[in-house]
Design goal:
Length: about 240
């Protein structure tokens, strides 16, 4: 696949240290002249993902000189208040299960609305027009604040509320986990696949003691299931 033409726009990538946001970071580095990254610390149980961020960023810098030149500041925002107002398995030590609503109890209501609003304020201050997020309507456990309509509505709200055009980019919105690996491969080949496999983190329980073919994780939580299934599907399609 030919490299896309780079845009002079700057981009802020919501980067948690997970597989999806790591893919979005590489996607943005191919397209935008200046790329900054943003992580949130909200007392998540899988805080280990925050420790993975630096390794992924360093790895990307090492992969391509033009990516190293485009990578600018990394930001971390403390959102401890989000942990205080949410009663969920992502921030509490309780078992991960499906609820009557059809959503897993890892659902933090409005989390992405809060993330993107903070990202909008930061992007404004840093003069970055694009905000890139790895939300996905296809297989992301049905979280309503990851849906395309929610993101489009928020793009309008942020643009009006800050009186400046903000573009929310969602490169993973319509693809599943197997296609996300394919996208990774098309952007950076096997070295990028290896980097994301090894250094990104998805497991809700924050387990990095076990290395599977698809990366590290407990192997039993919904995030591990999703990541494992996606990777196996991707590999089978290659065989
Ligand atoms: Zn897990």
């Amino acid at each position: 696949m030919p490299a896309p033409t780079t845009s002079p726009d700057g981009a802020l990538v919501l980067f948690s240290g997970g597989q999806d946001s790591a893919t979005c970071l590489a996607w943005a580095l191919e397209r935008f002249q200046r790329v900054e990254t943003l992580g949130f610390d909200y007392g998540q149980r899988h805080r280990v993902e925050l420790d993975c961020r630096a390794a992924v960023i360093d790895g990307m810098r090492a992969l391509k000189p033009e990516w190293a030149a485009r990578l600018d500041e990394d930001h971390m925002i403390d959102l401890a208040a989000l942990g205080q107002i949410s009663e969920t398995s992502l921030t509490r030590d309780s078992e991960i299960a499906m609820q009557e609503s059809g959503l897993p109890n890892t659902f933090v209501p409005g989390r992405n609305l809060i993330f993107l609003t903070f990202a909008g304020a930061l992007a404004y201050r840093r003069g970055l027009r694009r905000i890139v997020t790895g939300v996905c309507e296809t297989d992301y456990s049905g979280y309503p604040d990851c849906r395309d309509d929610t993101i489009k509505a928020l793009q309008v709200a942020l643009s009006l509320g800050m009186d400046r055009r903000v573009v929310l980019e969602t490169p993973l919105m319509w693809i599943d986990k197997a296609a996300t690996w394919k996208l990774t491969e098309s952007i950076g080949g096997q070295p990028l696949v290896d980097l994301i496999l090894e250094e990104s983190h998805s497991c809700y329980l924050g387990d990095r003691s076990q290395r599977h073919t698809w990366g590290y994780g407990c192997g039993g939580c919904p995030a591990c299931d999703l990541r494992a299934n996606g990777y196996h599907t991707y590999r089978q399609a290659l065989a």
